[in-house]
Amino acid sequence: MNTYDGSNLKGSSVLLIGATGFIGRYLVSYMKGKGCSVIAGVRDVTSARQQLGQDVTVIDINGDTNLIVATLEKVETVINMAGRQLAGVRWTKKRKTEFSESRIDLNKKIVKCISLCEKPPTTFLTASAVGVYGDSGHEEIAEQGPHGTGYLADMCRQWEDAANEGMKSNVRVISLRLGIVLNREGGMLNQLTLPFEMGVGSYIGDGKQIVPWIHLKDVLRMIDYVISNRGISGPVNCTAPNPITAKVFAETLKRNTAAKLLLPLPKIVLKILFGEGSGVLTNSQNAIPKKALDAGFHFTYEDINSALQSEFDDHSVEVQKVDLQPDELAAHRRKTITSAQYRLKTQATLNVSPEKAFKFFHSPANLGLCTPPWLKFSVLESSPEMGKDSMYVYQIKLGPIPLKWTTRIIEWTPDDGFIDLQEKGPYKLWVHKHHMKQITSEWTEMEDIVHYSLPFGPIGKLAHNLIIKKVLKRIFSYRNEIIKLRFGEQLVG
Q: How many Cβ atoms sit within 10 Å of the Cβ of residue 394?
């Protein structure tokens, strides 16, 4: 594979709407890593600042039109990735209104604001979906293929039509027709993972319907590619070049998880659960990325097995049982700290100097960016100046259960690292060492070492073996992925 170098994002500016969504969070980090200035357009400004980090400007996309127009005049590109979740929910009248408002109406608003600009952006990229083709069976469909029928196809068409009005302002419009985006932290794969990890997987009906999938990293790269290549416009199928059947997808997911059994799920069950909305999960769409391939785009993940393997490979995070002697924690000795049961270790190579890496990681404002969205992380309190003995209090949620966590910095060595200690929280012991080692003037090795113990004796050990170890590896795997993107990871293809 060749390193992807088709990006022209460095030094450019982007207004990214839907920045806190599934794809949007990763796209923010990817674009920052490419040297792009990012302004995030969101519905909840306070929450977005907690999630996106301190170096991303945030505006209320539902706020003052003049502010949006002024923002649009500062950027070369506007990207709209917003849209209420379609899959896995029942399509009530209220939800259909939300689908339209978050897609069609929002695109209309963006286009109206663009029309008011004296200097409009050069490119408007909007999300769309392969649902525009309807239930098209096994026949290959490229971008110029016919539109389907039904509510979803009609909505996708109106979604794109609303964006295309931007061409009247001499703006290049791209409609990214997304397939099923694979990443275990969001979308369909996130919904499917739990039952497969519990041992029983399923596929819908006879499993012969075509699944138009694409790995998240290829979505990020394709967005970059079509923006950077000025000759590309109009609809673009954002799918991998090798679609597979639903049964093959399920069989491959089974091999990459703990599933021991694979069962067919009758379509009628989904019809009962989701009504009209079941079509998102049962339709067959053999959408081919012809326009991207013809333009020379190369995929990082062309086959489903390598794509899913990448999502469930957590070997970069090492967890082992240890017998830590008291003198190993001499600098932090307290009555409650006598030994640690486990040690977690992971590292990532970042395209940034140790000084800049240290500045990024010690800031509580960036903690939310490095935390999976399902933890619903929020900082409650923090010291105004960070250093030795600084305290910060934050909250996470495991499902509906809120957990408050108080941490104190017990060692502080600028440009080298720091150590924080849990003062109050769910663990009996949690000592987290952040170490930064300079490789070159522009490259840093970031190492995390966590020593921890669990309460409740044998019950805590059992919970660790069954659940906690897996959850921690998943959290730190996500952290590694997002920070590597943030600091310019070179995705290949």
A: 21
Question: What is the amino acid identity at position 252?
Answer: T
Q: Which amino acid is at 48?
A: A
Of the candidates 228, 216, 239, the one whose C-alpha atom is nearest the C-alpha of residue 295 is: 228
178 pairs with which residues across the strands? 129, 238
Taking each helix axis from N to C terminus, what angle separates 106-115 and 65-72, rounded to the nearest 10 degrees? 70
Superfamily of domain 13-187+207-246+266-300: NAD(P)-binding Rossmann-like Domain (3.40.50.720)
pLDDT single digits (tens) 217-236? 999 999 999 999 999 999 99
pTM of the model: 0.92
CB distance 176 to 125 below 8 Å: yes
d(CA 21, CA 15): 14
Matching CATH number, 317-486, of 3.40.50.620, 3.30.450.20, 3.30.300.30, 3.30.530.20: 3.30.530.20
Cβ atoms of residues 342 and 444 within 8 Å: no
| Assigned token pair, 26 | 């990763």
CA gap 393, 383 in Å, rounded:
9
Across-strand partners of 234? 174
CB-facing half-sphere around the CA of 371: CA atoms within 13 A? 21
> What ranges in 85-149 are assigned the alpha helix state H?
93-100, 106-115
- What residue ranges do the domains of the chain occupy? 13-187+207-246+266-300, 317-486
Positive or negative, the Cα torsion across 25, 27, 33, 38?
A: negative
For each successive 10 residues of the chain (493 residues), what is the average pLDDT?
61 96 95 94 92 92 93 97 90 93 96 96 97 92 93 95 96 97 92 89 92 97 96 97 95 93 90 86 93 95 95 90 61 51 93 88 89 91 87 89 92 90 93 92 91 92 93 94 87 59
- Same topology, domains 13-187+207-246+266-300 and 317-486? Answer is no
Q: Are 45 and 60 in contact (CB under 8 A)?
A: yes
Length of the chain equals 493
Paired tokens of 421: 């200690």
- d(CA 415, CA 352) in angstroms, rounded, equals 12
Dist. CA 111–CA 109, nearest whole Å: 5
Q: E-strand spans in 64-191?
A: 77-80, 123-129, 140-141, 172-178, 180-182
